[in-house]
Amino acid sequence: MAQEKAKSSYYLPAGVPAPKPAPDGLDTEFWDAVRRHELVVQRCRRCAAFQFGPEWICHRCHGEELGWHRVSGRGRIYSWERVWHPIHPALKDACPYLVVLVELPDADNVRMIGNLLGDPMRDIAFGAPVEAVFEDHEEGFTLVQWKLAG
């Protein structure tokens, strides 16, 4: 018999450490945008290259003129994994769950990782369209999750 997950307004159970900007502040704008339910990626002001995760220099031209660019939040599944063994104790009762690597076509196909909402046992197709879902937590942070798009 399949184990039934407890009903929650969150995809994963409570107790997972809240994400917060790195001490150097490099990803602060990303987390601020997510709280506003906007998805942003870094973009070089010199060569216009997109990149994610955040860095101090451009991966393409090595310039230091990086800013943040809002993207649609729509993408496609590049890769995925069904997680059976959690890396954090708070997730021990959440397994299995799906983690997807999402390609963002409107950001030169940079890739972003996250959880895929819904049945963790369903079949997943490479290239399937997805869209970002913003999950607000009572503790004051917001996570980016993904759901299949129609």
Report on the architecture of this protein.
There is one protein chain. By secondary structure, the protein is mostly beta strands. The chain has one domain. The protein is built from one helix and eight strands. It has one helix at 28-35, and strands at 39-44, 50-51, 66-71, 74-83, 97-104, 110-116, 129-136, 142-148. It has a five-stranded antiparallel β-sheet. It has a three-stranded antiparallel β-sheet with strand order 2-1-3, with helices on one face. A hairpin with a 5-residue loop joins β7 (129-136) and β8 (142-148). The two termini are 31 Å apart.
Strand order of the largest sheet: 6-5-4-7-8
Oligomer: single chain
Give the total of beta strands.
8
Tally of helical segments? 1
The radius of gyration is 16 Å
Give the end-to-end Cα distance, rounded to a whole number of Å: 31 Å
Number of domains: 1
SSE pattern, N- to C-terminal = HEEEEEEEE
Strand content: 35-45%
Report the average pLDDT across residues.
89
Can you summarize this structure?
By secondary structure, the chain is mainly β.
What is the strand and helix layout of this fold?
Elements lengths: L27 H8 L3 E6 L5 E2 L14 E6 L2 E10 L13 E8 L5 E7 L12 E8 L5 E7 L2
Name the descriptors.
three-stranded antiparallel β-sheet; mainly beta; 150 residues; 1 helix; disordered N terminus; globular
